[in-house]
Amino acid sequence: MEQITLLLEGFAGALTPMHLLWALIGVTIGTAVGVLPGIGPALTVALLLPITFRLEASSALILFAGIYYGGMYGGSTTSILLNTPGESASIIAAIEGNKMARAGRAASALATAAIGSFVAGTIGTVGLTFLAPAVAGFATSFGPPEYVALMAVAFTTVSALLGPNLLKGMAGLLAGLTIGLIGIDSQTGQPRLTFGVDSLLDGIDVVIVVVALFALGETFSRVMTGIGHSTVQPVRGRALLSRSDLRRSWPAWLRGTALGFPIGSLPAGGAEIPTFLSYTTEKRLSRHRHEFGRGAIEGVAGPEAANNAAAAGVLVPLLTIGLPTSATAAVILTAFQSYGLQPGPALFEESGPLVWTLIASLYVGNVMLLLLNLPLAKVWARLLTIPPYAIYAAVLMFAALGAYAAGGTTTDLIVLCVLGLLGLLMREAGIPLAPAVVGLILGPIAEQQLRRALVLSEGDLSILVSGPITVVLWVVAVLSLVVPVLLPVVRKRRSTLAGTATTNGSSGPGRKSE
Amino acid sequence: MTKADEGGLVTTEANEQVADSAEHETDLGRDRRAALSSLIFGGLMVVAGPVMIVDARGLPDAGAMGPAVAPLALGVLLGLTGFWLVLRSLRELRSTPAARERTMPGRAALKVGALAGVLVAFALLLPVVGYVVGSAVLFVATALLLGAPHGWRLYACGWSLAALAFVTFDRLIGLTLPTGPWGF
Lengths: 514, 184
Fold this sequence. Notes:
Number of helices of chain B: 6
Oligomer: heterodimer
Strand content of chain B: under 5%
Radius of gyration of chain A: 22 Å
Largest sheet of chain B: none
Structural class of chain A: mainly alpha
Distance between the termini of chain B: 30 Å
Strand content of chain A: under 5%
Largest sheet of chain A: 2 strands, antiparallel
Strand order of the largest sheet of chain A: 1-2
Largest interface: A-B, 73 and 76 residues
């Protein structure tokens, strides 16, 4: 198997002392920001972008990958002990996990989340190892029309899936696309939406937008509504699983992984949908159904596994096609670009050693995370006792530092403040930020591909639907716009027909997305 | 963090139920605020759409590959989606009865304004007072707006965090951060 040789070479690169150190720093920072409320991996990677530009590409990417995986582990700690998910994909785990913690079983909940994350993360990374080269091989045949269609799919599915409803998802996406358009057009040199302001000519740095929307939006919102009172559940005993807990957990881990990885690796979903599906699956299959809603361990094990497997899956379209389907993946794409690397099929050919070192470091990172999270669960739980005002004030301070480092002028800080107020408005209105970030980063790439396609066809739009792949992708894109609109109508009609309205458990995720 | 601190944060089940019911009372207010915020956001989109179209009309026309295509299309989409959002939030506003408490208390708006003001002041004064002083003030002001207790601890915390950030990023990593007349 060619992959195994390449992966072994990757391990040779990842196991050097320097790379091990960066992986360790990455997973530690990742776990910490996953645990702390108000900071997510997308924000952290964005903040570190202007600081890490002196690092070698491989070191920086290993660091970011560690933050990405670590954020997923840390998020579960917060949702279990605090019932305020640190990152959006942990919301489901908060339902059962926090109930378990209230019943004094926080240690078991943390253990099943950590081990489940390890199992799923590792299986997911194995999946990535074998699937990614195949997808990359397939994607080499893609031309600009296929890329345009793929991005259309990403735009529509991200809007439909990562928000409370399609309309708000679209609003978020369009806001991101608009901000991405500001500045000089790279192909024609024409300034767009700059309104004569010189400092807008270079566009607004991705770092500033992401930091403003996430960090400032959150801080403004806390200032407005107050920090509130949160209850941290104490961790009693060591984070270990009893035999019966293990017997109930492992099938849930595997089922969660089986749902998470394939759905995550589609050029559509992100990590939220599979966690939700895993929860409903576990609830239906469990022999302890009466425990659901009161702290069933399967309800933590399955969704946490699904969450981490999906996180590995999201890397498949990111690395092989250059298509991010979550906010963090979009920011990591920017990190690649800042090193002059363009994720896509060519990445595997041109920067093979780098990619394989990165993938090998994901295996290493998962082992580190298990070691960091199981014995040290109590230490991470202590982070939650930091008063929230200190966390948010520090977040704001580092946000200002990041924006200054990215731009270096007073104007950048003013732009940061204005976009922060926009972030507050979006948060209050329930408009999801993830589609905005994906639109911001993917928008300019989509425009470039569209122009390439039209140059090839000399302006003939029919090139966009010229091949079977493009037709299928456009159908998927249209369906993802139509289905969320039609589904409630159909369901309403069916329920009125049935007379008694039986609410369907899987009526779609309706929560805020990070 | 001492044992006592930890104990203070771990409240009992009974306390929490009280907090839960208090939250339900403000649910109506929150729904209304969400509808109002969507209305404002939709309104912004409705305004931004035509602005983008006007801006795009000023660009040289180069056919399907030109720089004007994307902003024109986006302008139309912005306007339409914004209009739809406005309509839907108006309907939501009408269907949610006005909550007893005001949707957004004046004090909350004032606090948001104050934080924005602090940020702008930070932006303007950074080159004058230097990174450490500026950031320490930013930290303390934000924490106070978030309801932190006054006291030397807060100031010490802000000062040491700012100093630590300066040493790490300016001296170790090599970012050039602005220095005041005193060199930090």
